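If I may wish for something, please sit down with the protein I am sending here and say whether tokens and residues agree:
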Amino acid sequence: MSRLFRLLKIFGIALRFGLHEFVPGLAGSWFFRVASARRGEPKARRLREALETLGPIFVKFGQVLSTRRDLLPLDVADELAKLQDRVPPFPSAEAIAEIERSLGSPVGKVFKSFASEPVASASIAQVHLAILHDGREVAVKVLRPGVETAIARDLELLETAAALVERRWAEGRRLRPREVVAEFARHLEEELDLMREAGNASQLRRNFEASPLLVVPEVHWDLCAQRVMVMERMHGTPISQVQALREKGVDILALARAGVEIFFTQVFRDGFFHADMHPGNILVTTEGETRGRYIALDFGIMGTLTDVDKSYLAQNFLAFFNRDYRRVAQAHLDAGWAPAGTRVDAFEAAIRAVCEPIFARPLKDIYFGKLLLRLFQTSRRFNIEIQPQLVLLQKTLLNIEGLGRELDPELDLWRTAKPYLERWMDEQVGWRAASRAVRLEAPGWAKTLPELPRLLHRALSEDRLGGLARALDRLAEENARRNRLLGALLALLAVALVLLAADLF
């Protein structure tokens, strides 16, 4: 019954905001047009406000949906990106009860002091400040009570709706709604396990431990559980408060360049990047020896890249810079993402048609994120599947690039990024790459090589390799037969030469 009421509520809100206009075949319906109370307003804004009205899980879904710019019209994606995941906090008594249940100790025993009022509250969790008994300041993240049940309920509805849209409308099938909902479910699953988030934070901190650019809070592992995470409290000024940063003496232009370097370091050096780098998750230190560095927060959504992914991205970025569209097309084939039979020349021509108008502008006015987006959209016309990790990366690149341009409107991302990309490509090919591969594999070779004779003897004696010994015997016999035949031919040739010599003399 509760599911039916929830469905009716969703239907009523969709009707009120005129969301029927997003459904093929219903956009011109007289009934829905009359029933809508918000007709005439921009569709994208109505969709955003409807999701905000539906509640936290739908807000979260809209945020994830905004990253699929390869699927959505840009005005819709831009509007959904404005969704703010801010909801009223749940009672502090419930937060304390969850902390004590998860950590197995009273709050007074774990912390010297604990602030009952949260400093941040979102749909999945909220954050309280505390002080440990040794005087260290910490931030305590606690999942909302019953959040898993609420998410499971709304996910069922979203999955049902996605299947219906995909089954009933051809355009719905092209937009792959079930794939989008499945991607959303994966994001939520990661955010519902704070031990996983703690692991992400710890990995990122280790990657940038000696960095002069980025600070990552330390995780207190002995105070972490699936529903509670305790980490170092970070002091800083929000990145969005540019004037306040200037007043505190922070070099804004250097900060913009540092953001680009941090992004490319995460992507190409580590293959592990923060995939939710919107301004709300970034602070800047303004005091002490770490002054002017970025502070990363909220590690629920992280992206990973393989060597193939990194090579694909580096080749594409450099090829774009040099307008080598053939190389862009070939990179898709080399990565194995283009279907068999894809014509490289046709794909190259499509990419050229998209990119040449962009490159007519000054380099500083060209946006990496939008260029990658146009590439994704063109790729879909050739049935090239866009990898989920690259969608996350594109979203992050849009965030970083937008942030960099806010800090420095004259920021030339191409000029800043190209030396880094060229250096990375140089390290991946040639003698440096070979030397590194030998260093990495040498320990394994040193252990395996002395064991090869014993392993081969065992395999042959026990016939573990499915008749390898018999195959080797047959190969030896065949080789002996060929040797005998060759010997006979040589003998015949010798006799023929002797007879020919006798005739001559």
User: Anything to note?
Assistant: The chain has a mean pLDDT of 78. The two ends are 114 Å apart (CA to CA).
